Every structure is written in C-alpha cells, then in structure tokens.
Amino acid sequence: MTTRAIWIIGTPFSGSTLTQLLLGRFAKVFIAGEIDRIRAFNMHPHLEHDPKCYLDSCAYCRAHDLACPVWTPSLFEELSSTGPSPGLYECLARAVGSEVILDSSKTPWWFLNLSKHRAFSDWRGRILTLHCVRHPFAFALSLANRTGQPLEQCVLSWVIINRDALNVVQISRAYSPVLVVYHNDLLRDPEGFLVSLANWANLGELEEYRPQHFLGGNVAAWPFKPKSEQSAPQFDASIDYFARVDPIQDDDGRWRSKIDQGMRWRLASLPGVREMSAMLGIDIDALIAS
C-alpha cells in the first residue's frame, strides 16, 4: 500500500475543519489533524507560553476526558524519532491502517519545512494540496470576534497568511495537484465537493459518520452530543453534516451587517488586499458593493 497525504493550507476560519470532517467519511482517509502541534517538532516556539499550543491528545478524546486509543504515548514517541519529514505520514499510516493521511496543519512553514526534506522528492504524485480560501471581510470579522483585534489588523493577517500559503502551493504544484476550496462553495454544496474530490483523488467509498481522532481543529464543528445528555461519550451519527449547513449563512452573510461599505473600502485599500484578492480569484469590488 502506497501512503498518500492531503495537505490543508489557508487561513483559520476558512472551512478547513469542515473540509477535513467531510474527507473523514472516506474509507481510505485518516484525519491526523494539526500535526505541527506535536511538541517534539517544536514548530511554534513563539507560542511556548500558551498551554493550548501543543497537543497530547485528539480533540474528541480531550473533550470527553478519555485516553486516546490512537494518539498514544508510544505513537508520539515514534513520530518524534521520525521527525518533521514525509516519513511521519508512513508512520501514521502503519499505526492506523489507512492509505491517506490528512494533515490539516495549515501552517505554511510546516509544509515548507517538509518540502525541503531530502525524502520529499519520492512523494511526487502522492500529495494533494487543498487551499481553503475565504474572502477578507468575512475572515476579518471572524478573527476580530475571536481575538478582539481591529479589522484592519485582521485583514493584513489575511494577506500575510495567504501569501505564505501560496508559497506552499507553488512548491507542491510541482509535485502534485492543488485544489482551491472556496468557503462559500463548500457551504453551498458540501456533497458536491465530496463527489468531485472522490472522483479526482481516488479516496475510496464513503462510510457512515464515525468519531475521528484528530489533533486540534474546531471542536465546535463536530457532531458531539453534550456531556449533560449522555452517560458516556457518544458520537451522534444522526446529525448530517449537510443538514448542519445553514443556507441563510451560505455566503458568509453575517459580515454584511457588521462591516459597512465605508469600512469595506478602507479595508480593501490596505496594502496587498486587492492584489491578494485577485490572485485568489476574489472579486473585491463586488464584495464592497454587495
């Protein structure tokens, strides 16, 4: 069995968690999550003070105070000895018995670091890169709500993160296909996204929903039953991801009532915003006028 990998890059709040949840329905795919947050790799020394930066358990088991059956101390030890290299995907594939490892680290320098490894040349055609894209106004509002930062600073972060993500795209495109996943399109037709990707990447048959043991991500996107409603951790298979998509919000409509047209002009005039929007296929003038 030849191990393959899926890279998810892009900004936070761009639909990456929903994307990996949908991909987790394929029989061949194991959602590893944000592998860059394994402490032994020390990819985020500037966040060392943040107790949530590095992870020692998956989101599902951490939410339910369980010992994770996948992310065990022995697996962390084995990955630590492998180091940040493409070989860690093969290590994970052996541990979980899956052909495709989904790495949703998103952090550009993590993927750039992997691409510089001498073994990366052996992975030609074995990595599929998904670039999750959300337009700058909706992203800025989400980031401002989460962090309290001014909208201007949030939009500049959008430019910087996507600039670095495009550096990853430029490198990975030489080895494997790249697919841009637009946030609006993903929310409008998640089932169509699944079908298209299955045909394109040969990901096998769809399975029933099941708990996925991935590192990091947005736990709020998971269909967990609240602890108060259960005596033991339970995955609610009755919740359909497609049904969870609210059609009223399928175009990120909330930002329109929060960011007036004057502020949209101001944000669009910040350095790099128009240029990055054009590179990503985003019509910034249409967003301003909408």
Describe the structure concisely for a colleague:
The chain is an alpha/beta fold and 290 residues long.
Describe the structure.
This protein has 290 residues and is of the alpha/beta class. The protein has a single domain, classed as Rossmann fold (3-Layer(aba) Sandwich), CATH 3.40.50. The protein contains 14 helices and five strands. A five-stranded parallel beta sheet has the order 2-3-1-4-5, sandwiched between helices. The longest helix is centred in the middle third of the chain and has 22 residues, at 151-172. It is globular, with a radius of gyration of 19 Å. The termini are far apart.
Order of helices and strands: EHEHHHEHEHHEHHHHHHH
- What amount of the residues lies in strands? 5-15%
Radius of gyration: 19 Å
At the fold tier of CATH, the topology name is Rossmann fold
Q: How many β-strands, per DSSP?
A: 5
Widest beta sheet: strand line-up? 2-3-1-4-5
Number of domains: 1
Unreliable stretches, pLDDT < 50, 5 or more residues? 224-251
The percent range for helix content is 40-55%
From the 3D coordinates, which CATH architecture would you assign? 3-Layer(aba) Sandwich
Question: Main β-sheet, in a few words?
Answer: 5 strands, parallel
